[in-house]
Amino acid sequence: MKINGVKGMNDILPAAVGRWQEIEQVAREVFALHGYREVRTPVVEPYALYARGVGEATDIVTKEMYVFEDKGEEKLALRPEGTAGTVRAYIEHGAHVEGPQKWFYVGPMFRRERPQKGRYRQFHQIGVEAFGIAEPDIDVEQIAMLADLFRRLGVAPVVHVNSVGDAACRPAYLEELRGWLRERAAVLCADCRERTERNPLRVLDCKVPSCQPVLAEAPRLLERLCDGCRAHFAAVRQGLDDLGVAYQVNPRLVRGLDYYVRTAYEFTSDALGSQSAVAGGGRYDGLVETLGGQPTPGIGFGMGEERLALILEAAGRPVPRTVPEVFFVSADDTGRREAMRRAAELRRAGVACDLDARGGKLARQFKQAERVGARYAVVIGGNEASSGQAKLKDMATREEAPVALSGLVARFRPTPA
Ligand code: ATP
Ligand code: MG
């Protein structure tokens, strides 16, 4: 009986994995350049962590999370995002005693959503969290770092920034907004009407076309920020200008959770169609305390690797592939023994090489050399093994030249960096 994989959970096959490896490699380089260090936390956490840390009233927790009982002992969840687990680890290990911390993570996340382009049930996020810094320079550095990551991959998503205020200015605004929305309930969608009561800020995020012209007129928190939030936002904008990071102020960009304050940001790309966000970030100064830690400011982002892969594909960026430099083709058993020894020698010298371990006809071996994308074939013919000679064939130009087997290492050894 054939068993298929779970709906919405994808295999990343060797032909495609180069895309993911490149994204992760560039991310690791960029993070290292900015002092972010990797943290690895489990993919399973207590359900309570997300109920508290992501919010019991969010779609993620109510509708999208995979929840299960661990043999009747504890209610657990597959992680739907990376921040809550990272914050738990930060608190659990008392990391605050070491001063401000800049951490990143890479790994699979799970949400039971309706699968479609750019939306899957297992997907991968690359994210960062900076703990212990309330000042706007860390916001600036983090947004600029993410822009740099994209730049290195040859794409430039649109950067949106906003301020969602804080406990001093947001409550009054929320009441004003709620009243304004109630007056327009008749022309808003059902989701908007429900969110007006539960979480009015999220209404601004509505994607339903008929709601757009109405919401465009909604009162703006940006014009009602308290002095502290206004100064913080001005400093973030100034800092981004100083570093030459292009951005748009988007007054309707929100994070729906109470502990999000001040800076909210998002990177979007047209290449994604309706799932336009590739990364979302924001400041969450209340979260560490909410999860039982010392009051600690924090700011982070989560970026979807699958969506970034779609953007790179749309931009025509080729999928990197590792190919052998040399593929040994041998005519007979003596040749194969020689090929095995020379391949081992080359590999020890750091040269990627391969051969068709099935042996067999020369034509089939050449076919395999082509399939794996080898740059050169070294053909060890019937009498050549004993003479120490072989033929070197350039697989692209088809040119052939004699080569001494003893000279292969010198010929192919990578020049030290
Ligand atoms: P959306 O509005 O598209 O549902 P979100 O607000 O739920 O996004 P976040 O929780 O901010 O997304 O996650 C950060 C990033 O993770 C997103 O910008 C996106 O790139 C990626 N992401 C989120 N959910 C999925 C998913 N189901 N499949 C693939 N990528 C996802
Ligand atoms: Mg979502």
Secondary structure tally, helices:
16
Q: What is the CATH superfamily of the largest domain? A: Bira Bifunctional Protein, Domain 2
- What ligands can be seen in this structure? adenosine-5'-triphosphate, magnesium ion
SS elements, strand count: 16
Which second-level CATH architecture of the largest domain applies?
2-Layer Sandwich
Q: Classify the beta-strand content into a percent band.
A: 15-25%
Structural class, by secondary structure, is: alpha+beta
Level of helix content? 25-40%
Query: If strands are numbered along the chain, what order do they take across the biggest sheet?
Result: 1-5-6-11-10-9-7-8
Structural features, described:
The longest helix has 20 residues, at 14-33. The chain has two domains: 14-169 and 225-314, Bira Bifunctional Protein, Domain 2 (BirA Bifunctional Protein, domain 2), CATH 3.30.930.10; 326-412, Rossmann fold (3-Layer(aba) Sandwich). The chain is elongated, with a radius of gyration of 28 Å. 38% of the residues lie in helices and 21% in strands. The two termini are 52 Å apart. It contains 16 helices and 16 strands. The protein has helices spanning 14-33, 47-55, 59-64, 83-92, 136-152, 170-183, 190-198, 200-203, 212-215, 227-242, 287-290, 305-314, 333-348, 362-371, 384-387, 408-412; strands at 37-38, 44-46, 67-69, 75-78, 101-110, 122-131, 158-163, 248-249, 261-268, 277-283, 298-304, 326-330, 353-355, 376-380, 389-394, 400-404. An eight-stranded mixed beta sheet has the order 1-5-6-11-10-9-7-8, with helices on both faces. The protein has a five-stranded mixed beta sheet with strand order 13-12-14-15-16, sandwiched between helices. The protein is α+β, with helices and mostly antiparallel strands. Bound molecules: adenosine-5'-triphosphate (ATP) and magnesium ion (MG).
